[in-house]
Design goal:
The two termini are 34 Å apart. 51% of the residues lie in helices and 9% in strands. Helix 6 packs antiparallel against helix 7 and helix 6 runs antiparallel to helix 9. It has a domain of 125 residues: Butyryl-CoA Dehydrogenase, subunit A, domain 3 (Up-down Bundle). It is built from nine helices and nine strands.
Length: 296
């Protein structure tokens, strides 16, 4: 009996590693708060030249699997850079017209907090971004006219717009899984940053990370982030349990980030630290993912 491969393949591992290395150089260790409301620390052209937006295009049996895409999305989620990489990657995977288009592309998704017939467009505020009208049979990519800005999550530069993209079952599932994986990647990065912060922050002459209560929070945050990642991988491998796994993944990501924020004390709730941007990011990704799954 053949074994099911649960680890990412060569495409997923190599692209994910390249993203981590190049984005670390681009941000130079800067905190999210220093760039999230301004220009991204890297231009879209760099991502396009690297071919990362085409990593998901299906050409043969050796093309990227959904498990590979979850690996890539996790790496991208660690950055929280306000560019539409995972969105473009999946749109180009499922639309030949989008794959041929230069530059980033997006789609319009029905979500629960918008009226019927109005969609949420991730990265709809990006100048020159294209939008795909359908994934069923023939598709067309047109310049997006911005719509109404939705600024809750600055990292997603979203807009609302009349009309939604025609979706297929495969598209719905893959977007939900990839967005869950991206959220899990963000949760893991927030835990790592919280650990470093508690090593440096001093109280009563000791690093706050040496206090038992803080250690417990960090341990629980780490466990939750790992569970979020595991659930996203499960969703990528088990189509029949996609919804359950995606819901669990987002729940664990939220739990992890909330616990991590508490280790910063009162600083965790300040705008300057920027920790709330991570919560807003995954809250919006969750709305998009559930819009995919629950509006089928």
């Amino acid at each position: 009996m053949s074994m099911v491969r649960t680890s990412a393949g060569e495409i997923g591992v190599e692209v994910a590693q390249a993203i981590r290395e190049e984005m670390a150089k681009a941000t130079s260790g800067a905190t999210i708060a220093t760039y999230i409301e301004g220009e991204p620390p890297v231009a879209w052209e760099m991502l396009g030249e690297a071919g990362w937006d085409l990593a998901g295009v299906i050409e043969d049996e050796d093309s990227a699997s959904l498990r590979d895409l979850a690996e890539i999305a996790g790496a991208w989620g660690e950055t929280l850079i306000q560019l539409p990489l995972t969105t473009s990657l999946l749109v180009k995977r499922h639309s030949a017209a989008a794959a041929e288009a230069e530059g980033p592309v997006t789609l319009s998704v029905p979500v629960k907090n918008l009226p019927a017939g109005v969609g949420l467009v991730p990265f709809g505020q990006v100048p020159g971004i294209g939008i795909v009208d359908s994934f069923a049979e023939e598709s067309t990519v047109s310049p997006f006219a911005r719509g109404t800005a939705v600024d809750f999550a600055p990292s997603l530069l979203a807009s609302s717009a009349e009309g939604t993209t025609v979706l297929t079952a495969a598209v719905r599932r893959e977007f939900a899984v990839v967005w869950a994986a991206e959220a899990a990647g963000r949760a893991n990065q927030v835990v790592r940053e919280a650990v470093e912060f508690t090593k440096q922050r001093q109280q009563f002459g000791k690093p706050v990370g040496s206090f038992q209560a803080v250690k417990h929070h960090l341990a629980n945050a780490h466990i939750a982030a790992e569970l979020a990642q595991t659930a996203a991988i499960w969703a990528s491998l088990d189509e029949g349990n996609t919804r359950q796994a995606v819901v669990q993944s987002f729940a664990e990501s939220f739990k992890s980030i909330q616990l991590s924020i508490q280790t910063y004390g009162g600083l965790g709730f300040t705008w300057e630290m920027g920790l709330h941007f991570s919560l807003r990011h995954i809250a919006t990704l969750r709305d998009l993912a559930m819009g995919m799954i629950d509006n089928a």
